[in-house]
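Exercise 7.
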Amino acid sequence: MSIAEFNTSELLELAVLLVGVGCLSGFLAGLFGIGGGAILVPVFYECFRWAGVPLEARMPLCVGTALAIIIPTSVRSYTAHKARGAVDTEVVSLWWLPVLAGVLTGSVIARYAPERLFKIVFVMVAFGAAARLLSARAEFKLGDDLPKGPLMRSYGYFVGLLSTLMGIGGGLFANLLMTLYGRPIHQGVATSAALAVLVSIPGALGYVYAGWPVATRFPDVLALQFPFAIGYVSLIGAALVMPTSLWIAPLGVRVAHAMSKRTLERAFGVYLLIVGSRFAISLM
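Solution. The predicted structure, written as tokens, is:
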């Protein structure tokens, strides 16, 4: 699709949509510590479909762009949670290296994996997490506290790997794991915000690398050409979403700390059910 095929009203509608998505993703980043990627990915998917991005490049472009946007949002969310003393620094210190290893693996997979794989990973994890959070079964947990040693580090690796494939900043998995081991969800949310920083920066760079050949493969697709995109990161999408996302993130933090544990769990579960259903429908 060439730039001449876009009319002013369509561009304005797209810009308004992306600004609104920025507000929502920033709020969710503060509220759930998830970086907002789980809402960015499905919305970007529709935006890039409308912009004529081919199916095989569309989902990786969504994920890479979401990870790029998560960088400043997660930093803002993390600093706000840290100021409240809610971040578990021991978990962060144990996981930072395995998380980075998982991110690197995910970036390599992203270069060669079919588009359908991203959707399957997204749906499976979102539905599993939603079932856990909505079940309200306190006895449904993996242990009384987080493990030590190799098992804990392997968790960190898979947090980085799956988060990179889903474009969610790591918060969903870290949050879920911590609550499954008896940690309060407020602490899980705050610690997840810190891990989102570790996932998003190398993750976004990995998607630039993974998508480097895509502009040459699809020279007629404007949305994949520089300066609109670099690799699998849409620069125009990031530029429209980042400012409002940064502005709104502290509001989500305040709301999260004002909610009860059970209310926050229910809200997170419903949210995951909705976004997982969107991709489950597209898979069918």
